[in-house]
Amino acid sequence: MKHPGIVTLISALLLLTAIDPAYPQFQPPHTSPGPGVDRIRFRAVAVEIAPAAIQRGDIDLYLFSLKTAAARELLARTDIKIYQAPASTISIILNPAPAPPGQLNPLSIREVRYALQFLIDRGFVVSEIYRGLAAPMVAHVNPYDYDYLTVFDLVKEMNIRYDPEYARRTITEAMTRAGAVMKDGLWHYQGRPISLRFIIRVEDERREVGDLVASELSKQGFQVERSYQFFGPAIQKVYGTDPKAFEWHLYTEGWGRLTLERYDFALINQMYAPWLGNMPGWREVGFWQYENPRLDQLGQRIFRGEFRDERERAELYREATRLGIEDSVRIWVAAVINSFPARAELRGVTEDLAAGPRGIWTLREAHVPGKKELTVGNLWVWTERSTWNPVGGFRDIYSLDIWRPLHDPPLWRDPFTGLPIPFRADFTVVTAGPGGKLEVPRDAFIWDAAAGRWAPVAAGTKATSRAVFNYAKYFSSKWHHGQPISMADVLYSIHQTFDIAYNPDKSRIEFAIATTSRPYLDTFRGFRILNSTSLEVYVDFWHFVPSYIAEYASPSSLSMPWELLYAMDILVFSKRQAAYTDTAAQRFNVPWLSLVVDLDARLVQRVLKELLEKQDMPENVFTLAGTPVLGKAEALNRYRAAIQWFENQRHLVISNGPFKLARFDSAAQFAEIEAFRDPTYPYRPGSWFRGSLRPIEIGSVRGDRIPIGEPARVTVEARGPGNIAITYLLVDPSTGRSVAKGDAARVGPNTFEVVLSPQLTSQLKGLYQLVLLAHSDSLSILTERTLSLQAAPPTPPEPAGPAGGTGAVGPTPGISPLALGIALAIAAAAASTLIIMRRRRR
Q1: Class assignment of domain 697-815?
Q2: Range(s) for CATH 2.60.40.10 in the chain?
Q3: Strand pairing report for 783-792 and 705-707
Q4: E strand intervals along 592-683
Q5: Rounded-to-integer distance, Cα 573 and Cα 582, Å
Q6: Looking at CB atoms within 10 Å, which of 63, 362, 528, 634 has the fewest?
Q7: Where in 682-823 does DSSP place strands (E)?
Q8: CB-based contacts of 648: which residues, under 8 Å, 6+ apart?
């Protein structure tokens, strides 16, 4: 199922010139079509033994983050390289459903939920549990995210801190109003103690985080039932059940980052706004639903580009962030610096500034000189919740780690700027927004779900923007089963998306998909085929960055061939023998369709055989203005190829990327992908390599006091790629109130100065914090530093000497450039980040 895809106008030349010159020169291992190696094997490897497995040569790269102690031990080794990136975040999701009569759910009370923000000792989590390889979070964006610039003063002023006494007062007032009574150190309601079920993940440091929070809750008088669980059972219990069944009250969530983001529109909706289906109730029919109309309204305006300029977008984003924090259904804890170990000889790694080597780029290029195969370890290859279908599956990071090198998306994100860029489809954008409209041509069409056909757009239809997508690099090549990729694949994908959302029979079955898709699909005004490779799309969407318009308008992910999508639709909606989503599967007691599961794939193959026997095809989908765009002979060839693929491979994962899925053994926790070397495949090694970029480094900082009544100056040195700027915020830490905010003046090539006027300093007394955020037009990752400044009467100048203030943080041996930048940011991080729609559960 396709929400806005991923997409930009940054040229490859610009990317190449930005590569860190310290990164080893990349030499493609060969010039054949496809990836760098012939084969990659994926194995499940426990995180505790991953370093030893690399040292023995059992694996070449590990895609699950090492625990902090192990990562620190390996930093100085020369036979292992540690790639570091803020690739995951952790949060606590709360169940706010009202309890049945005679019972009380404390988390249904907003004041109690908000009080829990003050029970989480984020400083302890960062310094003691993660040993500095994390940054505290209060909002959905953290101090590394570019949109943290938009909200960081708001977050600071909310003054959320570890303050159990404040939490106790707030909880006591709210619980007492609700009729609860404290008895023998425990809260009771109508004579019975109140118990909270806390599901705590055990694979990583979330176990320690969960125990810390559970202990704090116990100190507040709540009886806490701790349930320690792995990924599959935990996900099923939390996201697969009605919140009102109270199978859980709290859960330690983890989110993996798939790519960098400059101007977020999805994450803020995913983590706060109910309409997108990621808040308790999950938009599943029959479940109790968390509702927040104002968050939905704000979130959809951000999502659909309903703002006049960047300033208005920032206002919407700030209000939604504030409401999300205040409602505290999801409480953020930390952004974790993941440490991915690899053999030192591994080449071809692109260090995505958010995902590290886990991004889409690395496995396409990765190789060890002299070897034609790689072995990649991960915590899991398959879990009880791993589901391979492109409509309502791929919910876990472990499956996506294997899927990404199998599929070429039309558009993706630049690994350094976070902006949408062309990946395999080129695009152009024309817009009349934000205030104007474009005429939609009369020969444009839209899917009419009621009539079951493409219909011409109504006369006088207008749209804000137009995007044209050129799929030539797809259509000149083939799917993995040897059939040519064509416009038919694009048309069926568009039809499928709209029909699930607007066909009443289908939407009743896959309710969650339908209800979360409509606000997005409602903005599409028409499509038009321009020639054999180009599709024109009209949408009511605008953005001040044109490539975001293309990303939003991208109508098809081109993930799997149309005949496979058609067969799955028949299986799900006509035969009712499977479901696309987990909640629909539960509701109708059918399998959650997974194309790597033999029984599920056989069901799809059986449909393909029936279609071949009946010579049936969806003619209504492939007929435009009375003219067919696909012949029956081609359709029958497609069926035969897909059937034969299953006979050979024993699965039905067919896509178009540089690798194809050769083996998948869930019981053995093993998968193998093979190079797709078809001569028509358009890319070769070197096509995807982007290397590494140094983050911004804040060096020496001079100035440690504020002379009352005189100008106060703080001089900052900062280096990094692109045009650097520094935004500052002066905060009174006792209240969280911001005293001043602005941009530092550039006074030299790498030198900036923050100047506080005498009028301001004359009003100050005591201790203040100066928060510095360094950012660049070439990066979408921030570097933060916080200084303590004492406001005091002016004193005679001291003799010249070494730099004062916090001084510079020098290079650390054995740490990568990105890790160094992260370490600099960690020094004073104190605030608040898939995708999912780009964040995936882990």
Answers
A1: mainly beta
A2: 697-815
A3: parallel
A4: 623-624, 627-628, 659-665, 670-675
A5: 15
A6: 634
A7: 697-702, 705-707, 712-719, 724-731, 738-743, 745-748, 751-756, 766-776, 783-792
A8: none
